[in-house]
Amino acid sequence: MKCDFADSLLQGYFDGELTAAGAAEFERHLQHCVHCTVELVGLDLLSGRLQLAQLYEAAPAWLRKKIRADLRPVAPTTAKPQPLLWHWLAAAAALLVLAIAGWRMSPVLGTDDYQVELAEEIVDAHVHSLQPGQLTGISSNDEQTVNGWFKGKLTFALPVRDFANDGFALQGGRLDVVEGRTVAVLVYARHEHLIDVFIWPTREPEKSARVGERQGYQWVAWQKGKMEFCAVSDAASAELEQLHRLIAG
Amino acid sequence: MNDLDAEDRLRFEQLVVPHVDAAFNLARWLLRRREDAEEVAQEALLRACRFFRGFHGGDARAWLLQIVRNTCYSWLEKNRPRELMVEFNEELHLQTCPTPETIAIAGDDRERLTRALEMLPPRFREILVLRELEGCSYKEIAAITSIPIGTVMSSLSRARRQLYSALVNSPRKEAVREM
Question: Which residue, of A79, A184, B50, B69, is most buried by count of CB atoms within 10 Å of its CB?
Fold first, then answer.
């Protein structure tokens, strides 16, 4: 009763997987095989039913979002200006005791590669900080207040200056960790953008500014007066350089 | 997922991320539960990311689904090993409690088809899902499931017949022991 072709060729024919010659041969067979004809109709009905029932289950939106976020830890969309609502957590105490480690050059990478890697880590730190509740700090536009907050937390003197008159309003500051070292961060607002300026001591000779871009964020890094600076923002590169000139004097 | 450099990340996003639905759908049907599929699809994507440097072009969907499938089977081995051993088990099928929403959204037939599909052994279920829901070619199915194309054809035939009898017969009398 059962046809020998039913198992393989019939499936292949139904799924359009036979060669033209194979399909033609099967069609000749179909003309006098009731069994295969009935099976074919049955396959068609079953397949139609499966399609109609809409059994396909798409991934939930959050899953797709999460995969994208994991993939791009620095998605430019997270760079919305946010009020500096610092969360005063006990974590601040832990940060206080972190001493500032000496500046070590990586023996493997050239200076420029290393600089770029470092800047990229700083960009990531900047983006991370834009998420509320990530880091503690001081929210103030007053130079003295911000300076006072940093006193005792740093082993170096920090040049805290407000450039509101030039369009870069001081928003506050915080401590962050880059490459395992505690660094100071001053936060400025420029129009709709927040600019983080990462500052730490260095033994490197003075160097003029280098600029770069990472996933929609601009960075400008320079060394001056035994200090290293790296400004990061989603603001235009020219604006960062303007702030660099103001800070570097 | 940070081991990829910027260029690879972009490639991954362009080639692999569009197939997240396919990944989830396969995981959902292999594991029969959305929550588990969410977890395992996520893990599979992470693995895909880790292995991405080894992907040198070709069919990205088949490549991803192969990883999803392997991740699903490892997960089943660890969490529900019985499912891989028994070919047909009513208990297993009864464990899946469809939520009120899925019943409401689903028509009667959707519910019946879902139950019938979930009663099939995983290896027949996956081949039907890949062919009927995902629209994979035999060649792709062969690549994803690591079986020869000839076997794809005969497995499809048996899987379809099993699904058909699962639909026609009452589940209680049904005993599909063909594998």
Answer: A184
Q: How far is CA B123 from CA A71, A141, B73, B85, B119, in A?
A: 31, 65, 10, 11, 11
Q: Cα separation of A225 and A232, whole Å?
A: 20
Q: Which domains does chain B possess? A: 1-85 (1.10.1740.10), 87-179 (1.10.10.10)
**CB proximity A58 to B under 8 Å:** yes
Distance CA A74, CA A216 (A): 9
Predicted complex ipTM: 0.81
DSSP 3-state assignment of A202? coil
A:B CB pairs within 8 Å: 100
Q: What is the CA radius of gyration of chain B?
A: 17
Q: Does A112 touch chain B (CB under 8 A)?
A: no
> Contact, A132 vs A86, CB < 8 A?
no
* pLDDT level of residue A1 (50, 70, 90 thresholds): very low
**CA-to-CA distance for A87 and B108, rounded, in angstroms?**
53
The whole model's pTM is what? 0.54
Substitution target in B20, B32, B141 with the highest count of A β-carbons within 10 Å is B20
Say which of B38, B42, B138 has its CB closest to residue A17.
Answer: B138
